[in-house]
Each structure stands twice: as structure tokens, then as C-alpha cells.
Design a protein that fits this description.
Elements: H1 22-31, H2 47-67, H3 72-84, H4 88-101, H5 106-118, H6 122-135, H7 140-152, H8 156-167, H9 173-185, H10 189-202, H11 206-218, H12 222-236, H13 243-255, H14 259-272, H15 279-292, H16 295-316, H17 321-334, H18 337-348, H19 357-377, H20 381-394, H21 402-414, H22 418-431, H23 435-447, H24 451-464, H25 469-481, H26 485-496, H27 504-517, H28 521-534, H29 538-550, H30 554-570, H31 574-591, H32 594-601, E1 606-615, E2 621-630, H33 632-656
Antiparallel strand pairs: 1-2
Function: Involved in pre-mRNA splicing and cell cycle progression. Required for the spliceosome assembly and initiation of the DNA replication.
Organism: Anaeramoeba ignava (Anaerobic marine amoeba)
Domain Pre-mRNA-splicing factor Syf1/CRNKL1-like C-terminal HAT-repeats: 378-528
Length: 657
């Protein structure tokens, strides 16, 4: 077995300067192709040679159609050759044989007719057309050419009869329009009108009616055109009408200077077709009002446009509550009570899809605005109460929404039904107790002068939320305002003893301010000392010292500063100590002398910029700059410590020797 040659590996793999394409290959092949030789021209000298030539051609054609019987091109070429030889009978025979083979081939019939017309056999051509349109009545080419031939020969009545026969088959619109144009060419307007009537019966569509009306207006019959527009709505039905109909009808009335009728058509159309299908109608209406309307009418069309935009957005996203708010405000400025109520009802029907508070927050405000609308604008108190009830019933149990409960209670108070308001508050606290509801309920009872109810509510409030510092303070302030100082003090005492408070510093401050206001200074001093047992924050020390200053106990204040300075020094709280010394300096400037001021000044620290290593990104160590305080007394102590360490080290070395 012969081995295949190894694959050739080109040495130069770079691209060639000229890239060979398929086009190059085809051109090269064509250039090398040998020219086909043509048969020599034959000159016929006598009748025998002519008959021999015809016999040979007929034999070739017969062989061709025998091989490809259904190739109609071969039949047509055969028949056309016979006609060119003057053998029309033979040509007709070929065409008839072809038709018997495949009568549905349209070009076959057309070539047959063209042959008869070429040799001016008019009657034969008519007969061929009659047969063609009888066998293939849906082929418009036959009808068009048949009519053209009759009209070209001047046979107008015959052409009209052909059109009538054609229309019986209910062809497409182009055929009807051709018939109408034919009658118009001969100024037969009444005939054209009758054809239009048949046209709209055959093709009952908006476009055909509009075309008919436009034609009537063109020929100076506006009343007939208006009747056709009106017939369109009656015969087709309002459900089928689209914006093209309303635009055309309104423009017609506008051209006839019937502006009120045009405006009514625009508005009727906008109210009876979907918003997505009325985009162009809105544009036409706006343009119409800008040209022919007054200020009120222009505002009305702007309102309609915005309403259309809102409806379009809400159709795709009915839970876009911001759009509902804008839509409601628009209706409140332009519509009556019933229309506004209808929009509110549509809005609140679109409940949030999930029980997540972020979805419900905006939705609840729809109910709130709805209730306010019924109460303040519609003056329907009963319906407003019904709206509040429905809104509360629709709130999921997972949420409280204190605002709507409070709004409902305030509504009942405005209606002078305190019993109903208390019931609302009670239901709210039983279903979803919240700090805000407790506060509003207590405030309401306080405004009504029911102090005992306020005390009971505060007790319930503190049982519900014992860590609420504000509740303790407000309860104590209530007792203080009533002159019950012992009850207020007892409340403060209970409050500061609570194991967990959200803001204990507020309670201590309020308690101290209360005792200070009562001028029980020993109690105040005692409270500060008790507070310092819990926390030694620098602000407590400063507030304690300021208190002693206010009651002219200067030395006590100085002792507090000294004690605080020593404690903060021991705790190494440099920032807090620096803040304390600043307050101490201010104190000595106001109440001390130069010696006491100098003592404090000698304690003031020096602010130093230092650096330290801190963990950085990706585990790297970074250098951070920070401010530190260096106190003079701490520096001396550090020097003494260093001296003692050196002495101890020297003693150890001496002992080793």
C-alpha cells in the first residue's frame, strides 16, 4: 500500500498580500472556459425547406413537453412559436392542450390573451377572459386586465358589467376602489355612491366607512358625510370604534366649524375607549382645545391628559400608591364627591401583596386620607366612621399602625363621643399596644381632666414598658404638677431602682432637677453621691460641682474637683481628666484666687501627637497618628519610678560581685 505523503508545512506562515477569495476562483475558471459554439444560421430557400424546419421544431417542442409535461413555460414557448409562424389555429390548440393540463397557471392564460390581442382577435380574447374568470374568479389579475381591455376598446358598459360580475365574488378593497374610480372617470357619481354602499356592506369596517365619508365630503356633501359617520357607530357598534374613527369624525366637525360637536366627540371617545388606544386622540384633543378653546376648556383637557397618564400607569402597576395619591389630588381639584369617592375605593382595593411593613406604610395613608376626605370635604360623618372601621379591620395582626388608631380616636372626640374614643384606644391597646398609643390616650384623658384615668393608664403603661425612662419621668411630672411631691419622689425612687432602663441618665437628671426645684439641697447632694457610686463619669462630677457653686458652697465644689481629679488620675482617663481640668479652671477664674488658679494650671496637660500601630487592610500593620495628653504629675511619678528601678538594678549587680 502506498503511503500518503506527509503534510506539507509552509515555511512562511504570514498572511499573503493578496487574499484568494471565492470571487477570484470563479473569475479564473470563467476566463479559462471555452466559448460555446453556436449552430450555424440556416437560410431557408424554398417551401420544402420551410416545412422541414417547422417539422423539426414541432418535433423538438413535442419532445420537450413530453419530457416535462407540467412545465408551462415549454407550452407557452411552443404556442408563441406557432403564432410567430402564422399558425394561430395550431397556437390555440397548444394553449388549449396546456390548459387541459393545468388550468390554474395564471401566466398561461395571460399569454393566451396577449396572443389573441396581438393579432386583434378581440372576440377570442373576450372568450378566453370569460373562461379564465369563470374558472379562477379569485385571481384579480384576470379581472383587472379584462376591465382594462374593455375600457381600452371603449366598451364602457361591458367594462361595467365585468366589474359587476367581479363584485359578486366580494374581492378585496383595491377591487372596490378600482370600480369606484372607474365610475368617477366617467362622472357617474351616483353609481359611485351605490358602489360605496355595496362596499361597506361587503367590508363592514371602520376604514371603509371613513373612506366613504371622506369621499362624500370631497364631492361637497357634508350632510351625507355626517350621516355616514353616525351610521358607523350605529351599524358597527360602539365597542368596535377606535381612535381613528373619533379623530376623523371630530376633525370633520372642526372643518365644518361645528366646534361644540367636535369637542363632544373628543370627550365621548376618551370616555369610551381604553387609555392605551387613545394616545393620538388625546394629542388631537389638546391641539383642538389650544386652537379653539377658552381657558376653562384648556384646563379641562389638561386634566383629562393627566388623568389618562395616571390611568395608564395604574393599569400596569395598580399598587403604585404614590400615583394613587397624585390621582386623588387631581380628582379633588376637578371632580365631584362621588367621583373622588370612586377613586378612593379603587385605590384601597389594591392591598399590598405581602405582609411586610414597608409595603403597608403608604397603603395605610390612603385610608387616612379617605377618612379625612369623608369627614372634612364630603361632610359624611357616618361614612368617615365606616372608613376608619374598614381600615382597622383590614390591618394584618402583625402590624399596629398606631397613627390610624389615634386618628380614629381623635375623630370620635371631634364628634364629641368620648366613650367611643376610649373604646377605640382600648381596642388599640388590647390588639397592638404601643408607646405612642399610651401617650396619646393619656394626653387625651389629661385634656379631659380625668386625672385618675391618667394614673391608671400610666400604671398600665409602665407594666407594659418598665424600661421606658420617658414614661417614668412623665408620670412623676404629672404628680408634681398636681402637688403630689411625695408620690413624685416615690416614682423617681422606683424608677432609678429598675434593673434595666433605656435612658437612666434622663431619670437621674429629672430626679435631681425635681429635688433642686423643691430646694431640698441635701437630697440633691445625696442623689449625686448615689449616682457617683453607680458611675464616675466626668460629667457627673462637673454637674455636682456646679450644683455646689449654685448654692454658694465654693469649698465643697473645690473639694469635688480635687476628688474627681484624683479618681480620674488613678483610672488613667486622660481625656476625661483634661475635660475636668478645663471646668476646674473656669471655676477658679470665677470663684478662686491666683494661688488656687496656679495650682490647677500646674496640673494642665500637654497635648502631644503620637503614633501607634493598628491592624490595616488584608492583615497589614498601619501607622496611625493620635493626640495624647501628658500630665506634669504623671511625668514626675514616671521619673521616680525609673530612678527606683535603676537603683534596684545597681543593688542587684553589686550583690552579684
Amino acid at each position: 500500500m502506498n503511503q500518503l505523503p506527509k503534510q506539507f508545512k509552509p515555511k512562511n506562515k504570514n498572511a499573503a498580500k493578496i487574499q484568494i477569495t471565492a470571487e477570484h476562483l470563479l473569475k479564473e475558471a470563467l476566463a479559462h472556459q471555452e466559448k460555446q459554439s453556436r449552430p450555424p444560421e440556416q437560410i431557408i430557400m424554398d417551401e420544402d425547406e420551410l416545412q422541414e424546419y417547422r417539422s423539426r421544431k414541432r418535433r423538438n417542442y413535442e419532445n420537450a413537453i413530453r419530457r416535462t409535461k407540467f412545465n408551462m413555460g415549454s407550452w407557452v414557448r411552443y404556442a408563441q412559436w406557432e403564432a410567430s409562424q402564422g399558425e394561430l389555429i395550431r397556437a390555440r390548440s397548444v394553449f388549449e392542450r396546456a390548459i387541459s393540463t393545468d388550468y390554474t397557471h395564471v401566466p398561461l392564460w395571460l399569454n393566451y390573451v396577449d396572443m389573441e390581442m396581438k393579432y386583434k382577435n378581440i372576440n377570442d380574447a373576450k372568450n378566453v377572459f370569460d373562461r379564465a374568470v369563470s374558472l379562477l374568479p379569485r385571481e384579480n389579475k384576470f379581472w383587472y386586465k379584462y376591465v382594462y381591455m374593455q375600457e381600452l376598446l371603449g366598451n364602457v358598459d361591458d367594462a361595467r358589467n365585468v366589474f359587476k360580475r367581479w363584485m359578486e365574488w366580494e374581492p378585496d378593497e383595491a377591487a372596490w376602489l378600482s370600480y369606484i374610480k372607474f365610475e368617477i372617470r366617467y362622472n357617474e357619481i351616483q353609481n359611485a355612491r351605490a358602489i360605496y354602499e355595496g362596499f361597506i356592506r361587503c367590508k363592514p369596517k371602520i376604514s371603509t366607512y371613513l373612506r366613504y365619508a371622506k369621499w362624500e365630503k370631497k364631492y361637497g356633501n357634508p350632510d351625507s358625510a355626517r350621516k355616514i359617520y353616525e351610521r358607523t357607530a350605529l351599524e358597527l357598534g360602539e365597542d368596535i370604534l377606535d381612535e381613528s374613527y373619533y379623530c376623523a369624525f371630530a376633525k370633520f366637525e372642526e372643518e365644518q366649524k361645528e366646534f361644540d360637536r367636535a369637542r363632544a366627540i373628543y370627550k365621548y371617545g376618551l370616555d369610551h375607549i381604553s387609555k392605551k388606544q387613545a394616545v393620538q386622540l388625546y394629542k388631537e384633543f389638546i391641539s383642538f382645545e389650544k386652537q379653539n378653546g377658552n381657558q376653562t376648556e384648556i384646563e379641562e383637557v389638561i386634566y383629562s391628559k393627566r388623568k389618562f397618564q395616571y390611568e395608564d400607569i395604574l393599569e400596569s402597576n395598580p399598587r403604585d400608591y404614590d400615583i394613587w395619591f397624585d390621582y386623588i389630588r387631581l380628582e379633588e381639584n376637578h371632580s365631584d364627591i362621588n367621583r373622588i369617592r370612586e377613586v378612593y375605593e379603587r385605590a384601597v382595593e389594591n392591598r399590598p401583596p405581602a405582609k411586610e411593613k414597608r409595603f403597608w406604610k403608604r397603603y395605610i395613608y390612603l385610608w387616612i386620607n379617605y377618612g379625612l376626605f369623608e369627614e372634612l370635604q364630603a361632610k359624611e360623618i357616618t361614612k368617615a366612621r365606616e372608613v376608619y372601621k374598614r381600615s382597622i379591620e383590614g390591618i394584618p395582626e402583625e402590624f399596629s399602625f398606631s397613627k390610624i388608631w389615634i386618628m380614629y380616636a381623635h375623630f370620635e372626640i371631634r364628634c364629641k363621643d368620648t366613650k367611643a374614643a376610649r373604646k377605640v384606644y382600648g381596642n388599640a391597646l388590647g390588639r397592638a399596644p404601643k408607646d405612642k398609643i399610651y401617650r396619646e390616650y393619656i394626653l387625651t384623658e389629661l385634656q379631659l381632666g380625668n386625672v385618675n384615668r391618667c394614673r391608671i393608664l400610666y400604671e398600665k403603661y409602665l407594666e407594659f414598658s418598665p424600661a421606658n425612662s420617658e414614661a417614668w419621668i412623665k408620670f412623676a411630672e404629672l404628680e408634681q404638677s398636681l402637688g403630689e411631691t411625695n408620690r413624685a419622689r416615690s416614682l423617681f425612687e422606683i424608677a432609678i431602682q429598675q434593673p434595666l432602663l433605656d435612658a437612666p441618665e434622663l431619670i437621674w437628671k429629672s430626679y435631681i432637677d425635681f429635688e433642686n426645684q423643691m430646694q431640698n439641697f441635701d437630697n440633691v447632694r445625696n442623689l449625686y453621691q448615689r449616682l457617683l457610686e453607680k458611675t464616675e463619669h466626668v460629667k457627673v462630677w462637673i454637674a455636682y460641682a456646679k450644683f455646689e457653686c449654685e448654692i454658694d458652697m465654693i469649698q465643697n465644689a473645690r473639694d469635688i474637683f480635687k476628688n474627681a481629679d484624683q479618681i480620674l488620675k488613678n483610672q488613667s482617663k486622660k481625656d476625661e481628666r483634661s475635660l475636668l481640668l478645663d471646668s476646674w479652671i473656669d471655676f477658679e477664674n470665677e470663684f478662686g484666687d491666683s494661688d488656687s488658679l496656679l495650682i490647677v494650671q500646674q496640673k494642665l496637660p500637654k497635648k502631644i501627637l503620637k503614633r501607634r500601630e493598628v491592624p490595616g487592610f488584608a492583615g497589614n500593620i498601619e501607622i496611625e497618628e493620635y493626640w495624647d495628653y501628658e500630665f506634669p504629675d504623671e511625668k514626675e511619678e514616671q521619673a521616680n519610678v525609673k530612678f527606683l528601678e535603676m537603683a534596684k538594678k545597681w543593688k542587684e549587680q553589686k550583690m552579684k560581685k
